[in-house]
Specification:
Strand content: 25-35%
CATH superfamily of one domain: Neutral Protease Domain 2
Number of strands: 31
Number of helices: 10
Radius of gyration: 25 Å
Shape: globular
Structural class: alpha+beta
Helix content: 10-25%
CATH topology of one domain: Neutral Protease, domain 2
Length: 556
């Protein structure tokens, strides 16, 4: 997800915290679940992730089949979701997440009616005989009015808009709140449907539905059209969604770095079709940059998709969303959109390389942000790279560690700090300097291409550290711990100890680090041991002037 500034990140979180409305939530039978006094457009204080429930720890999600009718006039949805899951243990309860604003009308497990009740945004499906080890297909019928997004995509839900021509325009954003905002699911980042998802979404004709994967078919009956989208790839539950608009579809094709041909599809509003060619050409250029550093586009069997939406973009797999009013920066004579590029980088960092827990979100957001610096390197050269990296350094607030202590962290806890973007990117810059380009770039590409760290396999900070430590041939854990698990910066003193003689010392030493020392008009990369070094110079030496580390330098 793209945050345009640290201030915006912080203010959004404050807004969210102070707009909590306590809603009545009580355990009831599904037949009387909805409370007529509840306004489903009220703000929900929801987050995703956190502690994995024991009842869900024994579940492995395999597939979602979501069949919904979207009533735009009533701003409501109705239909069903079938969840295919494997149980590792016999249990008397299957637990799914779904916010309480929906009325569940029927549940079947393996085509047999099942008992259930709802409580605290969860569905408890019970069986006196128990559910056996192995595959279970849970079918849930439900209906209701989805929460309206307060400030999408940061505070998510449904956004019901009109385009400039007066056509209906609907977008969904649920990264912060999870898939439970509109379909029953296991709402935890550690489990994705390995066999993908099907979405069969019915809307008033002639509106168009943009979704993940491949469009299998479109059928129209009685002024309604049903769009069947299907992805066979594993996919995060917050990427299983759709957008609706009076779209025109502009198509092209890209040949990947490995020679595979993948379609490009841009779902752009009819009123904005004049911008389609530039967006597609920008995507082609950006693909070459991203493939150079991170390997082939991850979803070659499906598509490169873009959908125009009425809010800031998001990294929805194979159908990222985009809206920057078609404004571009000019870098070295080339037009560039940071919003479009950042969300596209998430196809590698979030959708292909996925965190096991929200506590390691810096991997997705930090490296996607660092990808923007690499784009500047390719388009504008070293000066453009240095400029954007300097901005990431300045915007590192260090309010709290970007990798919290422990696991099972909620999305809200991680995003409220903001530093997973800029500081996460700057950490990669520091790591590059520490181990050198010859090790750094091949290892970064391995992280984004190795089967052990991609698609069905999730990653943590420890996995990333071990990969780079192995490649560098030295233990980098102290480096990772210092910059990611604390708010410390290097504390360096330059102390005059004699005539034209200075001691340079890192006071919070944790491992020998290279530093660029400038003295007597020359700059040299020098390893600083725990006791520091002595430098003879006519004037006080300068330390790390180019800014490879977060640091504080004191002249004594």
């Amino acid at each position: 997800m793209k945050f345009s500034s640290s201030f915006k990140q912080f203010s959004v979180q404050l807004f969210k915290m102070f707009t909590i409305l306590i809603l009545s939530m009580q355990c009831t039978q599904a037949s009387s679940q909805n409370d007529d006094n509840i306004n489903s457009r009220d703000i929900l204080y929801l987050t995703t992730g956190g502690k994995l429930q024991p009842l869900q720890a024994i579940m492995d999600i395999r597939h979602y089949n979501i069949v919904l009718d979207v009533d735009i006039a009533k701003q409501s949805i109705s239909g069903s979701t079938e969840v295919s899951l494997n149980l590792s243990k016999k249990t008397d309860t299957i637990l799914l997440d779904l916010i309480h604003l929906y009325k569940v009308t029927k549940i079947k497990v393996n085509n047999k009616a099942a008992a259930y009740y709802q409580h605290d945004d969860k569905i408890f499906i019970t069986s006196a005989a128990g559910f056996e080890i192995g595959n279970q297909k849970v079918y849930v019928e439900y209906n209701g009015i989805p929460p309206v997004a307060v400030k999408p995509p940061w505070d998510g839900g449904f956004t019901w808009k009109k385009d400039s021509a007066g056509n209906d325009w609907v977008s969904i954003n649920i990264q912060g709140e999870g898939g439970k905002m509109y379909y029953p699911c296991k709402d935890h980042p550690s489990d994705e449907p390995n066999e993908g998802a099907d979405l069969k979404i019915t809307v008033p004709a002639p509106l168009v539905v943009a979704g993940p994967g491949l469009l299998m078919n479109v059928s129209t009956k009685k002024n309604k059209s049903t769009y069947h989208w299907k992805t066979n790839y594993t996919i995060s539950n917050y990427c299983i969604l759709f957008n609706i608009g009076k779209y025109k579809v502009y198509k092209d094709e890209l040949t990947t770095i490995l020679g595979n041909k993948v379609p490009i599809e841009y779902y752009v509003l009819e009123v904005d079709t004049m911008h389609a060619k530039k967006v597609i050409e920008t995507k082609k250029r950006d693909t070459k940059i991203l493939e150079k550093y991170f390997g082939e586009y991850p979803w070659v069997k499906e598509k490169i998709g873009i959908a125009e939406v009425p809010n800031s973009g998001m990294e929805h797999q194979t159908m990222i969303t985009f809206d920057n009013k078609f404004r571009y920066k000019t870098i070295n004579g080339q037009e560039y959109s940071d919003n479009l590029f950042h969300e596209y980088a998430h196809e590698w960092w979030a959708n292909k390389v996925t965190n096991k827990d929200w506590g390691h979100m810096w991997i997705q957001e930090g490296i996607a942000t660092y990808a923007e610096a690499l784009a500047m390197l390719e388009i504008g050269g070293e000066p453009a790279y240095d400029e954007i990296i300097a901005g990431h350094r300045r915007n590192s607030k260090n309010r709290k560690a970007i990798v919290p202590a422990g696991d099972e962290i909620t999305e809200e806890e991680v995003y409220s700090g903001g530093d997973i973007y800029g500081k996460g990117s700057f950490f990669m810059h520091s790591l590059r300097y520490l181990i050198g380009d010859a090790i750094f770039f091949p290892t970064l590409k391995k992280l984004s291409t190795d089967p052990q760290t991609t698609y069905d396999n999730f990653v943590t900070t420890m996995d990333v550290e071990k990969l780079f430590s192995t490649a560098a041939g030295k233990d980098l854990k102290p480096f990772f711990d210092f910059f990611l698990r604390t708010t410390n910066v290097l504390d360096i003193t330059v102390k005059e100890v004699g005539f034209q003689k200075y001691q340079i010392k890192q006071n919070n030493f944790f491992m020998p680090l290279p530093l660029e020392i400038t003295a007597n008009g020359q700059t040299a990369r020098t390893i600083i041991p725990s006791e520091g070094i002595m430098v003879n110079a006519a004037t006080p030496p300068q330390v790390d002037t180019k800014g490879f580390y977060l640091k504080k330098v004191t002249l004594q």
